[in-house]
């Protein structure tokens, strides 16, 4: 099994690691049983309910997992920064894998959960501002991985 | 990151071939390269080399020379033992093994279920020792074979083979043991332990890859899996791997001379490595039996972080270890051995195996002790499961 140079770079030097105090949204995906778990914290600006206007101004994460999981979280955080909530809702896990120049096939499912975790954080934000209707439209994390 | 270090701590996966073994093998590729089945002088010289190696192996495990059958390695020996005994009879339909076997035994046993065999897996305790009460209750007149490893490859726990054979023999079951992790590392007296069949592998103790043996005590019936010529008394057809056999013999020869002193030296290094980790990293757990364990094996679980991410970081520092965590082996399951020992999934995923060997040096252990705490600190800093003792995140 071989990781790409980009995976190794993000694994050894993960971007946006940490937590955000009073985050606007927090989202978690995965669990320690399958060996991968990540939690994202986001700050939204402007804090509007219009998903075409509201953007991810800041993003931080923490990960328990293998090399791929850490690299996925780091890359997904970079890709999400500055994006509108509409853009976030249409991001896919394949986008992250492609930006990392691919992942080993066995890592595509369990470890590639960065986008879903960020979407969970967005849903959390939308629910907090009373827009459960919008939150319900975002895919987020499959139930069994929660 | 570049590093000068080249610290190989994965000797349970495979060992480097000892240069003395290589030297002994070289003439058998060209100078003495005839077929041992040929009756001419060149063939007889090859035959002599094969039989000399067989004799040395028999001394290492205390069996008769004619009880040694050469195979391509441990996996073939395990297959031959399990399938060979099954094919030789029709009466008994139960095979008992353990939950912590190597896949060479586990998968082979599971395969036999397709042919009407009942497969029973004996559980183990927290240290990885098989449950003798369970075994005792499971063995019956229908039991053909009890196949339990001599020592476990992941955690190093050594199984009580003498007691296992006593229990199994009460009902006339045959006892096979996968001894690839113990051969050449600890003394094996197959006679005293009462073992009927034993698998060994060259490359696990500084011999070449592609050669191993199944030792079968006199009177134990088994059918061959390879048919063809009359090699190995009709039990394993195929021209003998003469250089490999010679190399295996030499590896046994060296083990006979050096095993005791090497065990002591390696154990001291292993204990120093564990002390270095235990003193400098909080929340670590030693996996395997505290005493009844191979001297070279150190399996640890590091709480809050995952094994592969530790391995990759160690790799960057020129340290080559292994992980029971799945990520490395390509499946996503946590180690079946650690789970059988009752570890929760997080701890099983966060495990690392350092397996030391003949060519490790003290300064290599110092290097690991130096870099490992920093690797753990770095990974814990990004782990959502870790809150440090000061209460800060």
Explain this structure to me?
The complex is a heterodimer of chains A (146) and B (393). Chain A is α+β, with helices and mostly antiparallel strands. Chain A has a single domain, classed as Sufe protein. Chain: A (Alpha-Beta Complex). Chain A has six helices and three strands; from the N terminus they run αβββααααα. In chain A, helix 1 crosses helix 2. The longest helix of chain A is centred in the C-terminal third of the chain and has 15 residues, at 114-128. The radius of gyration of chain A is 14 Å and the shape is globular. The relative contact order of chain A is 0.23. Chain B has 393 residues and is an alpha/beta fold. Chain B folds into two domains: 7-15 and 259-381, Alpha-Beta Complex (Aspartate Aminotransferase, domain 1); 19-255, 3-Layer(aba) Sandwich (Aspartate Aminotransferase, domain 2). Chain B is built from 14 helices and twelve strands. Chain B has helices at residues 19-25, 41-61, 74-87, 103-112, 132-138, 161-169, 190-193, 231-234, 242-280, 307-316, 326-329, 336-340, 345-349, 362-381, and strands at 7-8, 68-71, 94-98, 118-122, 143-147, 174-178, 197-201, 212-216, 284-287, 297-302, 319-320, 351-355. In chain B, strands 2-8-7-6-5-3-4 form a seven-stranded mixed β-sheet, sandwiched between helices. Chain B has a three-stranded antiparallel β-sheet with strand order 9-10-12. Chain B has a two-stranded parallel ribbon with strand order 1-11. In chain B, 52% of the residues are buried. The model of chain B is unreliable at 326-330 (pLDDT under 50). Chains A and B meet through helix 1, strand 2, strand 3 and helix 2 of A and helix 10, helix 11 and helix 13 of B.
């Amino acid at each position: 099994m071989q990781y790409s140079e980009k995976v190794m770079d993000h694994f050894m030097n993960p971007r946006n690691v940490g937590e955000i105090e009073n985050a606007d949204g927090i989202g978690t995906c995965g669990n320690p049983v399958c060996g991968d778990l990540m939690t994202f914290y986001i700050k939204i600006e402007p804090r509007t309910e219009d998903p075409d206007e509201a953007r991810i101004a800041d993003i931080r994460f923490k990960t328990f997992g293998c090399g791929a999981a850490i690299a996925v979280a780091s890359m997904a955080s970079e890709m999400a920064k500055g994006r509108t909530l509409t853009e976030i809702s249409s991001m896919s896990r394949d986008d992250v894998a492609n930006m990392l120049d691919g992942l080993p096939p066995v890592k595509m499912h369990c470890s590639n959960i960065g986008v879903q975790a960020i979407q969970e954080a967005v849903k959390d934000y939308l629910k907090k501002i009373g827009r459960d209707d919008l939150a319900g439209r975002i895919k987020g994390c499959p139930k069994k991985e929660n | 990151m570049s590093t000068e270090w080249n610290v190989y701590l994965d000797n349970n996966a495979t060992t480097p071939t000892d240069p003395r073994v290589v030297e002994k093998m070289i003439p058998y590729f060209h100078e003495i390269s005839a077929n041992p089945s040929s009756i001419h002088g060149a063939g007889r010289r090859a035959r002599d080399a094969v039989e000399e190696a067989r004799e040395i192996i028999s001394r290492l495990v205390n069996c008769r020379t004619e009880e040694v059958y050469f195979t391509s390695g441990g996996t073939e020996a395990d297959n031959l033992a399990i399938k060979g005994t099954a094919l030789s009879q029709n009466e008994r339909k139960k095979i008992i093994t353990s939950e912590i076997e190597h896949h060479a035994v586990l998968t082979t046993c599971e395969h036999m279920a397709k042919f009407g065999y009942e497969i029973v897996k004996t559980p183990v305790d927290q240290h990885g020792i098989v449950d003798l009460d369970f075994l005792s209750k499971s063995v019956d007149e229908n039991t053909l074979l009890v196949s339990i490893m001599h020592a476990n490859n992941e955690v190093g726990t050594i199984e009580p083979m003498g007691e296992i054979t006593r229990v199994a023999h009460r009902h006339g079951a045959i006892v096979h043991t996968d001894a690839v992790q113990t051969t050449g590392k600890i003394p094996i007296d197959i006679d005293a332990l009462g073992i009927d069949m034993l698998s060994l592998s060259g490359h696990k103790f500084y011999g070449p890859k592609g050669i191993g043996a199944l030792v079968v005590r006199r009177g134990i019936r088994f059918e061959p899996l390879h048919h063809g010529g009359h090699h190995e008394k009709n039990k394993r057809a195929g021209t003998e791997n003469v250089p490999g056999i010679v190399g295996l013999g030499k590896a046994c020869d060296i083990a006979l001379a050096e095993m005791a002193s090497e065990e002591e030296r390696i154990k001291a290094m292993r204990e120093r490595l564990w002390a270095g980790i235990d003193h400098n990293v909080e929340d670590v757990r030693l996996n395997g039996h505290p005493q009844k364990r191979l001297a070279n094996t150190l399996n640890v679980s590091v709480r809050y972080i995952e094994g592969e991410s530790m391995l990759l970081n160690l790799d960057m520092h020129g340290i080559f270890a292994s992980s029971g965590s799945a990520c490395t082996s390509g499946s996503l399951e946590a180690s079946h051995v650690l789970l059988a020992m009752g570890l929760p999934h997080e701890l099983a995923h966060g495990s690392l195996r350092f397996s030391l060997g003949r060519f490790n040096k003290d300064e290599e252990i110092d290097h690991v002790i130096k870099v490992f705490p920093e690797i753990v600190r770095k990974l814990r800093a990004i782990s959502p499961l870790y809150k440090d003792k000061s209460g800060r995140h």
